[in-house]
Input
Amino acid sequence: MFILIGLLFLAVYGVLVFYIGWSGWTWMRPMVSARFKWLYVVALVFLASSFILGRFVGNFPVLGIIGSYWLAAFCLLLMLLPIVHLGIWLFRLTSLPRHRVQKWAGSLTLLILVSLLSYGTFNAYSPVVRTYEIRIDKQAGDLRELNVVMAADMHFGLLSGQAHAKRMVEEINALKPDLVLYPGDIIDDNLDVYLDKGIGEIISGVQATYGVYASLGNHDKYKGRMEELISALEQSGMDVLYDESISLDGKLTLVGRKDKTESDRASLDSLMTDLPRDNPILLLDHQPYGLDIAAENGVDLMVSGHTHRGQIAPAHLITRAIYENDWGHVQKGEFHSIVTSGYGFWGPPIRLGSRSEIVQIKISFANG
Output
């Protein structure tokens, strides 16, 4: 069954790549020699396979970089080209020369593509700080307020590398957090790249009064035992809550869940069974599912990521349809859900219709 699905995927992908290649060649053909056609075909095949090969061939990081940008160009061209072809067809109803229309349409498409890739790269590597203010009607010891900073979906690895990690540390420390939370997808499927680039040492520089805590996401994977991954992350200055809870000086409780993709993930009610409900309860759950279940179990604030807010528009329309809260703040009674669009990115370092971000949550309590 999986083989058939894989073959179907490759067939559809091949047709779409052919459509893009044919469109490009139609535009270039009047301007280049016929011999260039074979070079063009080879280049297109290389680009089309680069992303898939880059995920499996770790010894050639350049291949992964090329593949990531190809994936972005592929997605954008699939949206642009049908509009361009419709425009060319409509211009046939005018007296304008066909070859001139095609020439300018191709040039304009290339200009728009490069502009979108440039703007998307800026959005991916230039994070903003988004601030939410919420109130939890519970006492948290002698705390009146708590300054929580959250970052998720960093996807640290090949393209979300040292510079992006240093930027995150500087941004977080500038906010002077009381507590820092990482609800999943800290690495991008490859712990070796994370370690080899020294990213763990960089992010260990994050400072917070009550510490740094994390849960794991669907991309926090390792070829060895999960304990080794958790140990490596904890050497980066964070405590990983892996279907676990912890009390912070008896003032509030943190609960961190395994990712939804893990078959042995404990139910939320079993994790909450023996927890005191008088103190505020904060839940780290990578994928923002089960908001009602969290509310029913006494969670006051649930922080999540995963959605990337679609990352490249119009995918945000899809995430909005899938998740009750795909980005931002949703309140249901006394329960709060905050979902971040993420600090990093998956695949291409491109964001359109979304922006890399760090989230600051200013919480006031009943005794505040």
User: Anything to note?
Assistant: The CA atoms of residues 80 and 109 lie 7 Å apart. The first helix runs from residue 2 to 28.
